[in-house]
Amino acid sequence: AQSVTQLGSHVSVSEGALVLLRCNYSSSVPPYLFWYVQYPNQGLQLLLKYTTGATLVKGINGFEAEFKKSETSFHLTKPSAHMSDAAEYFCAVSGANQGGKLIFGQGTELSVKP
Amino acid sequence: GAVVSQHPSRVICKSGTSVKIECRSLDFQATTMFWYRQFPKQSLMLMATSNEGSKATYEQGVEKDKFLINHASLTLSTLTVTSAHPEDSSFYICSARPRQGTGRTGELFFGEGSRLTVL
Fold first, then answer.
1. Rounded Cα distance, A54 and A58, in Å
2. What is the tens place of the pLDDT at every residue in A7-37?
């Protein structure tokens, strides 16, 4: 069984500040981990993913995440927030042999203040 | 990137009617498609896994007779909400997994979503 917990349903940062969105997972098999972004009334766009190999993963729009097995975490960061980063962010987990079936966290709404 | 299209993007219907939502992979073949439901300000809940040429696998608590899924071809899956009621109003999102051998195995592509409002 797998689950994802995102700490903080809403995060607010100032433009130019560090963005940190937290994600912890539970998985009985080696996990594949994902971060998606969703803008209002739209589908999901993949920011980055971890499957195997390097634990620090770089994605689009300056985001990156680090897989920490000992902490069962996959936190998303961006050094400097931009107004266009305001959106809903979802962390998701899948197993290597689960055919792409994703389990999503509750989501974190990111607000960016000017 | 790969494109998954959902249609309609918005639909309003009367209570008791049935509504069909289409999910198409436009530039790749998808052996597996997933249907999710998302309530306002909430996460995506997996409803079912749709495999081409076979019956869909529904998640626990999802009524298969209420939400009919058909994956008749490698590029199209449909979700039909039968006898819709106001509580079925939601945002429905599909995702598609490319067929092995396409060079995109392991990736998952999402549609833009379909917002259903039942009056």
1. 10
2. 999 999 999 999 999 999 998 888 899 999 9
